[in-house]
Amino acid sequence: MDIKSNSLYAQMQSMSMQAMGNKLPAVGGDDMAVDSLGKVNSSSSNFGNMLTDALKTVNELQKDAGEKKAAFEMGDKSVSLGEVMIASSKSGIALDATVQVRNKLVEAYKEIMSMPV
């Protein structure tokens, strides 16, 4: 498989521009969280918001599964065993995915911190 580095780089740049809505990067560049005027780059704040939303979603799935389990155990006829199992599986998968993302972030942080300056 022959990959030309220039074409790959051009594709990555075009995808980056597409993801940013064809806007020019901030003064500090894409890699910097803060530009020269001290303003936070929108891509880093968007990542933070996305991460916060994902954690809230996982929390909501956990709460929903807990509520359905409690309702089923109390004998609520409107909640079936299938619904409880599906909600429990969804919350378990979401939690596992969150742990994997956390592990990757910690691994990346450790790798960056061990780089020589």
From TrEMBL:
Keywords: Bacterial flagellum, Cell projection, Cilium, Flagellum. GO terms for cellular component: bacterial-type flagellum basal body. GO terms for molecular function: cytoskeletal motor activity; structural molecule activity. Its main location: other. The keyword Iron does not apply. GO terms for biological process: bacterial-type flagellum-dependent cell motility. It is found in: Bacterial flagellum basal body. It comes from the Bacteria. InterPro entries: FliE. Belongs to the FliE family. NCBIfam families: fliE. This is Flagellar hook-basal body complex protein FliE. It comes from Litorilituus sediminis.
